[in-house]
Amino acid sequence: MIGRLNHVAIAVRDLESACAVYRDTLGARLSPAVPQPEHGVTTVFIELPNTKIELLAPLGADSPIARFLERNADGGIHHICYEVDDILAARDRLVEKGARVLGSGEPKIGAHGKPVLFLHPKDFCGTLVELEQA
Amino acid sequence: MIGRLNHVAIAVRDLESACAVYRDTLGARLSPAVPQPEHGVTTVFIELPNTKIELLAPLGADSPIARFLERNADGGIHHICYEVDDILAARDRLVEKGARVLGSGEPKIGAHGKPVLFLHPKDFCGTLVELEQA
Predict the structure, then answer these.
(1) What residue ranges define each of the domains in chain B, with the CATH number in brackets?
(2) Is the pLDDT score of B112 beyond 90?
């Protein structure tokens, strides 16, 4: 069912210094920072030949990554995103297998403009999994 | 400098149930489990179209992932591995930029039979980074 690894998301407190780490120290190519007020984050993509790393910095008062950054002061890997062909079929399969889908269970439009769902970390080896319709 | 994302490694306590999650719930293709006593882990690879997920379970008394699993009872993302063309040139660049390389600073032969280095999470957005010579 899962297809490509769409991205690995790394939450950071200070976007500028995280960009410097990836650009200057690791020599990677970065996209411009994009504030996404509707998602409570500012994003920067690190473009690798086969996938992307997404740097996430909190934006606004109720950022969904604020609590994660309280627990992980240096930042850390926040979630991993797999592509699926059909997000509703994927959701139905997961629910049938007993896995928990976060929120209402209805896909939302994610930071890339595509339907996404998040899955409960306790059901997926302690990792927050995002599914994105490819 | 960094090239492809070689793999994302997820540490798990119970390899069988982690395999079931990826095989049965997420419908992915898994490689057979390979005990790697010299690395203190048993590995299973999840083959995605563009990269791999590496499941790591502790093996033996002094597994390098034992402490991580004490702190993360459900498991979690342990490290992320980027490919580099020349690991010694990469190491020298990182040291010049002030980043800390773990251990002696000399590459070791990793679980895939290639030279690897691990970098200090505090210098890389709170994430443990492995570099592997491609």
Answers:
(1) 5-133 (3.10.180.10)
(2) no
